[in-house]
What does this fold into?
Amino acid sequence: MAKAVDKHLIAIVDGNPRHREQVSAALLSNYSFATFGDVTNALMGLSIAPPALILVGEQVPPSRGISFIKTLRAERALTQTPVIFISDNGAPDVLRAALEAGANDCLFKPYRRSTLVRAISVQLNARIEGQWRMLPASVRDALEGTLTVFNSIADIADSGAPIQYLAIAESCSPLVDAVQANGPRVLFDAVKEHDNATFTHSFRVAALLALFGGAIGLPRSQQLLLATGGLLHDVGKLSVGYALLNKRDALTAEEWELVRGHVTASVAFLRSCTDVPRGIVAMAAQHHERLDGSGYPAGLEGSQLNELARMAAIADIFANMTEAQVYRDAATAEAAFKTMAEEMSQQLDLKLLQRFREGVLDRLLRPETQVVASVDSPNRA
Ligand SMILES: [Fe+2]
Ligand SMILES: [Fe+2]
It folds into this structure.
């Protein structure tokens, strides 16, 4: 019987060890990897653990990458697996030969990190992103604009260049309008099966916060600030590995420290730019802090917690609980809220939580709401 494909496993087959490392680093938070430096190891490894996609470099000893692609296409279990060929120089005849050999797409060096992530996403999310084209223009703009900007953040992080805050806020503008006009359900359904989990989570937090802002009577400019803060609140997760973010078993103390480190990484990243508003930094810095002092990283309590960050904490916990994780199923919206109201009443701002219930949860629970498996479990990160 054919082995099941691991939807988040990318195979990198390349004789160039430096390029294997670069690709692994570029995909760190999005995927797990299997790397192979030659044909024999690759064929054995790919048959043992079939990946979702295979990246093939120019040289795969003892032969060339293009010959390896032909070999792959002759393997029954791998004929349908998407293949992206990465050329050293982009010579047109080489790219053409790769496509003829069976590659689905080609990149050539040097390429941006976002270009690689995008090329993989096109192959793996073709069905989901294709469905976005059927949605109303405002919803489509909200999805495509934020995804493009989110992927480009990785380039900025790599190059050390300051973050373009205004461009990110601009990408959230259609999101604010779309969530107010259409409600959150259509947006949440659209990203539900997208494989970029950090984007999906950040997008959902952004949409929840825009609604939350409207529910407490904030003007559109503040709703936009909240949405942008939502999209950026976990940006430091780009430096945490996929395997750690998605570990099935309980984390060790050291692993917890690494996961918690996403907050410090987010703040450092946002502070490297002068035009990021302080409220955005506060949301990233304090969304895991809790009113009773039990949160992290600083153990702040009570009045030390910024109002925007209190809202971000509520939206973040709610989003997290209602998302499926490898270590637990998604909770229903009602179950997540019940856990927050009953078990986290010392940790969260109850007045704000009540407004969240009236302005956000009630909107999510309108009749079209789908019921998903319910398991109460507090969020891990
Ligand atoms: Fe976080
Ligand atoms: Fe988060």
